[in-house]
Design goal:
Elements: H1 3-21, H2 27-48, H3 53-72, H4 78-108, H5 116-127, E1 132-136, H6 138-148, E2 155-159, H7 166-175, H8 181-190, H9 195-202, H10 215-227, H11 230-241, E3 246-249, E4 256-261, E5 266-268, E6 280-286, H12 294-301, E7 305-308, H13 313-322, H14 326-332, E8 337-340, H15 355-366, E9 373-377, H16 384-392, H17 402-408, E10 411-415, E11 418-419, E12 425-426, H18 428-442, H19 449-452
Parallel strand pairs: 1-2, 1-7, 2-3, 7-8, 8-9, 9-10
Antiparallel strand pairs: 4-5, 4-6, 11-12
Amino acid sequence: MEPAARGALGGGQLRRWARWLRPGLGLKRWAVVLAAGILLISAGAALIANVSLLAWLDLAVLRLLEGIVAATGWSAPPLVFGVALVLLGGFVVLYGLRGTLRSIDRVLFPTGSPTLVEVLRQQRTLSRGPKIVALGGGTGLSTLLRGLKRYSSNITAVVTVFDDGGSSGRLRRDLGVLPPGDIRDCLVALAESEPLMTELFEYRFPSGAFDGHAFGNLFIASLTGVTGDLEEAVRAASKVLNIRGRVLPATLDDVTLAAEYEDGSVVEGESQIPLARRRIRRVFLKPDSVAGLPEALEAIADADLILIGPGSLYTSVIPNLLVRGVADAVRRASVPRVYICNVMTQPGETDGFGAAEHVRVLAAQAGPGLITHALVNVQKPTNPALSRRYEAEGAFPVSADLTDLRRLVPEVVTASLISEEELLRHDPDAVAGAVIRLTAAGGRRSVPTQLAGV
């Protein structure tokens, strides 16, 4: 082998060793424990054999020293030999531990990518991430979660369960279960399972008795029937998908979302509210006094960062805050409470709304003092064809009317947040990075150094 090749091989080996020995994995402490265990086993064996362990070791070491001196003529103080033996023993223990873990690595990750050490380091870092609670529903919340899971595994998504359209609505009417659609989207967004499994949850049957149903909706509905409880069903589905964080329904009560329009008319049903194409005065729940899930309220109280939105203002964001106890729990939290404003208006809900109007409506419905920050997009769409498609449907970019907004919110954060891949929506990485920096600047738990600069 050429010297250069040998040098490169040796350098690669050293780098692999360095990965295992770097701080953060907790391996070195267990190597010390392993060595202590070996010593205890040796002492126990010596006692069983009625042999004085220390006397035996002393005799063995002295004979070794005599042999070295006789063979080489070189002598050194016993302290030097003692240190050398300790180092040699430590190396042997670490080598054995590394070999054991490499054997496990080959079984768990046969392709070699990622490696066990990379997975351990990532999980360790994410477990130290901030405790984040995100409230909302629809595609807005699931988009946000895809970005957040890069920064923390301590994520709690509190999701609306008031949908009455599409597959969720049919299951709600036919089986009497709470609508699982938004929950399924969030589970898939946080999933760490094989891609095939997440694709399976998103798969929709094209025809037949299950026409239009998403497999994930059927799966969650079936689990609800087996467990008798949506919360337990979501917990079981979370294990199947190996999600990073947890997903909770805002309430376990069967509730209808209704809207009162400025002309005094009332429409019931989440899917029907935007179809009226009239200006909404308020939305409300029927019945109006539904209890929030205790686990969700506890997560809000313990959070380092609370995110509201993005998502349909009247049908995804505000409904969570109408559940009893949720808005008050958010208001009491002494951490950054961030409203993430939509990047596009929504026909039938927020026609002509700027960012300030979104915040005014939020305060009118959930009460003042709810949020400490508003995150607003200032990036202009650059894809004319995509923009024209949205304009044809009556959707336009939400204007960043910062002067009015700063009168309503203690702190306004602006950023370029748009993704123009097929749809005009939030870029998951951009919006997650923006809110994580708020936590790094002033939450109860700091962001790990590996993430703070992202």
